[in-house]
Amino acid sequence: MAIPLTQDLVIDDEIYGRQVLDGQRDAVLIQLIGSPAFQRLKHVLQHGISAVPTSNICGASVTRYHHSIGACLLVRRLGASLEEQAAALLHDIAHTALSHTVDFAFARVVHEEDKGRFLAKTDIPAIIEAHGFDPKRVLEETNFSLLERDAPALCGDRLDYALRDSFNFKKLSADDVRLILADIIAFEGEIVCQTKEAARVLSDAYMASDEFAWSNATHGALYKFAAEAIKEAYDLGQLKLDDLWASPSCEAFWQGLVESPHPSVRSLAERVKGDLHVRECTEEEAATATNTLQMELKPRVLDPTVLLEGGKTARLTELDEDYARKVDNYRKSKKGRRTFVLE
After folding, report:
1. Which residues belong to any copy of the HD/PDEase domain (predicted)?
2. pLDDT score for 328
3. Which of 4, 10, 9, 1 has its CA nearest to residue 30?
4. What CA–CA distance (Å, rounded) separates 95 from 41?
5. What is the mean pLDDT of residues 262-287?
6. With 80 as the cut, is the pLDDT of residue 282 above it?
7. How far apart are CA 269 and CA 260, in angstroms?
8. Taking a C-beta distance cutoff of 8 angstroms, is the pair 57, 226 a contact?
9. Residue 94, C-beta contacts closer than 8 angstroms, at least 6 positions apart
10. What contacts 232, CB < 8 A, 6 or more positions away?
């Protein structure tokens, strides 16, 4: 594949500000961004069914396009190699319409397990290879320590969506974002905070965002109901797996279920609405209520590594007893399968 001449690309990002990718040095990034496979991410909503206009209860319209470019810009500012920047850019390339909502329908992480199926029909591997990189290596994000680490540590993926989502959810101010970005550095291949104060601001906002959206019971109910409609449409032959990537937008994909020719799909889709609200109920309420559902909500927390004097490091929970108690109590509050009532 011949490498075409590439112009500089100016990116205005709400988290990192104006950034310029050099047409020669960063040509692989620019050409990947310009690929149809990457451009489709502009229409893949980060928060799935919770952000579809008819049911938008998160008040945000962040896309996988925003987040993918953000993860790239974040590891870039921390000194990542061009190869790792490309990996960051592509880490969510195979996300489908409605993002993680479809994982509940198919009982697997579709954008990871079916990545090869999607990429085989794109020019992404050829672009990577044309610039002298190994597609197999670049497309496996666990090869890159700044980009991907197990929770609750910081990594480029987790930190970008923490900043981006929390800012859009109004759990972080613009000043908070600047404080955190000024504080983080790469140390021995890991993203760390230089002060426990910045680590605490970030971690508190992350927990607040989790309570507001990621493990919120109402969001969980929307995901459950939407997933059941998707699975029903798939079982009835209305949807094929490739349709998850082929739809022009999340809105169009969902509208196809709302207007399904199958009454059972329409009936399931009708449960997804913007005024839905659920709350946890007592055992007594659960015994008599008819509009209940059971869910196990997975809490997300951060425990950033903080750099200390002399090159030593410690987790925030080791340095801040109050935060350690907060994490413990929060995890306990979300533990187990619980019963909720629809209101």
Report:
1. 60-171
2. 98
3. 9
4. 8
5. 91
6. yes
7. 9
8. no
9. 110, 111, 112, 114, 115, 118, 119, 245
10. 262, 264, 265, 268
Asked if pLDDT for residue 315 goes beyond 90, the answer is yes
292-295 and 278-280 strand pairing: unpaired
Does the predicted TM-score (pTM) go above 0.70?
Answer: yes
Beta bridge partners of 338: 295
The residue to which tokens 């955190």 are assigned: 180
Distance CA 290, CA 128 (A): 54
- Compute how many other C-beta atoms are within 10 angstroms of the C-beta atom of residue 10: 9
pLDDT at 59 over 80: no
What's residue 60's pLDDT?
72
62, 46 in Cβ contact below 8 A?
yes
Cα atoms in the 13 Å half-sphere on the side-chain side of 159: 35
Tokens (6 digits) for 270: 């009708």
- C-alpha closest to that of 109 among 97, 117, 99, 119: 99
Residues 107-157 pLDDT 10s: 999 999 999 999 999 999 999 999 999 999 999 999 999 999 999 999 999
